[in-house]
Amino acid sequence: MKMIIGLGNPGKKYEKTRHNIGFLVIDELAKQYGVELNQTKFHALYAIAHTPKGKVLLVKPYTYMNLSGEAVAPLMKYFDIPVDDIVVIYDDLDLGTGKLRLRQRGSAGGHNGIKSLIQHLGTQNFNRIRIGISRPPAGMKVADYVLANFREEEQPDMARAIDNSAEACKAWMDKPFLEVMNDYNGA
């Protein structure tokens, strides 16, 4: 079984914010696979999708972004999923709006959700899909920016990024992540 983790914050007020782009990709995958995220364990909402290529666990940690590792690590242990069989989807301020960057390892780069995962998994070596949200306008605090909804003009780029991320995840069910990186980086 593989595990796809979308990072975000639970609750209606965060639903469509930049910081919740990982949750939005998980919602899209659940829709495409025809499953409902209605199971909970270890402070995470999840569903298991049965695909022609095997089972995949779709996960939204409900610990809030900064404590994501507290939900992911016990789920991985419970379902006996090795770190090579996970991919984490999250927002990235350093990429242009809607751009994708896939990597197999790396530092947290200042992202608190990734810091928590690195701390709880004990490694920086895990697959990730970073989705660009750009930097805030001059004078706006980063926290306010990431917790704000996408502007109307950003929505087509973000819809495309959600679709491309979901397609990359589905491709990963069938190919090594390195090949998926080559196909989707910069999309």
What's the arrangement of secondary structure elements?
Blueprint: E1 2-6, H1 21-33, E2 39-41, E3 44-51, E4 54-61, H2 69-79, E5 86-92, E6 100-103, H3 112-121, E7 127-132, H4 142-146, H5 155-172, H6 177-184
Parallel strand pairs: 1-4, 1-5, 5-7
Antiparallel strand pairs: 2-3, 3-4, 6-7
Helix pairs in contact: 1-5, 2-3, 5-6
List keywords for this structure.
22% strand, alpha/beta, 7-stranded mixed beta sheet, 187 residues, globular, 7 strands
Alpha-beta content class: alpha/beta
Radius of gyration: 15 Å
Largest sheet: 7 strands, mixed
**How many beta-strand runs?**
7
Give the helix tally. 6
Trace the largest sheet across and list its strands: 2-3-4-1-5-7-6
Question: Beta-sheet strand percentage?
Answer: 15-25%
Contiguous runs where pLDDT drops below 50 for at least 5 residues: none
Describe this structure in words.
With 187 residues, the chain is α/β, with parallel strands linked by helices. 35% of the residues lie in helices and 22% in strands. It has helices at 21-33, 69-79, 112-121, 142-146, 155-172, 177-184; strands spanning 2-6, 39-41, 44-51, 54-61, 86-92, 100-103, 127-132. It has a seven-stranded mixed β-sheet with strand order 2-3-4-1-5-7-6, sandwiched between helices. Strand 3 and strand 4 form a beta hairpin. The radius of gyration is 15 Å and the shape is globular.
